[in-house]
Inverse folding.
């Protein structure tokens, strides 16, 4: 009985730790997004930021991209549209912003 309680307790502690880690990643992603992406892509990721609305080429909604595609664009940029963040963002930051776009912007 005692072993079962310990296993159940450990399971829920692990779930809580994973939830905390996910929240930290999303928070980091939101910070990066707000700093680097918001002005063009807007708060919903649909290209409706103050700069994005005034571009001659309409931005594709970010939700149409996979996490890998988002990271690839962060690394390479888009010619005449978006700078590359290959050296200015860590791989952890790029993964965090991609996760934020896929999970948190989906709710907006």
């Amino acid at each position: 009985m005692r072993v079962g309680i310990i296993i159940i307790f450990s399971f829920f502690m692990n779930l809580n730790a994973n939830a905390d880690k996910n929240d930290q990643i999303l928070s980091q992603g939101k910070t990066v997004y707000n700093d680097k992406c918001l002005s063009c892509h807007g708060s919903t990721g649909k290209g409706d930021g103050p700069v994005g609305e005034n571009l001659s080429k309409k931005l594709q909604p970010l939700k149409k991209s996979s996490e890998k595609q988002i990271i690839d664009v962060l690394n390479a940029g888009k010619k005449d549209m978006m700078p590359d963040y290959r050296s200015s963002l860590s791989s952890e930051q790029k993964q965090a912003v991609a996760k934020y776009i896929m999970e948190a912007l989906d709710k907006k």
Notes: Helices lie at 2-36, 38-41, 67-76, 91-103. The two ends are 45 Å apart (CA to CA).
